[in-house]
Design a protein that fits this description.
elongated, 3-stranded antiparallel β-sheet, 3 strands
């Protein structure tokens, strides 16, 4: 008997096509898309992605924008910090 090969998770349906690197990237994106995130308003881990960049908390109903696959991005976080510094400095 031959030894069974381990499939590539959710990207196993692609078979031998596209290469390893592309399939790893798709696997990471699919995992980010389907995972739950923390709500910025009620702090519950019940945020679900509705569409590209739009997220909604299933507990409190709060709807907000973020990255295409993540609820917050590095650029968004740095923008929030900059805005809080500007607003905090004027008061």
């Amino acid at each position: 008997m031959t030894k069974k090969k381990k499939k590539a998770g959710s990207t196993a349906s692609y078979g031998a096509k596209y290469g390893v690197k592309a399939k790893k990237q798709v696997k990471i994106i699919k995992k980010q898309k389907q995972s739950r995130y923390v709500c910025p308003q009620c702090k519950a881990k019940r945020v679900k992605r509705l569409s590209a960049g739009i997220f909604q908390c299933l507990k409190c109903g709060y709807k907000f924008t973020g990255g295409a696959y993540q609820s917050s991005t590095a650029a968004g976080m740095s923008g929030k910090k900059l805005i809080s510094k500007i607003v905090g400095g004027k008061e």
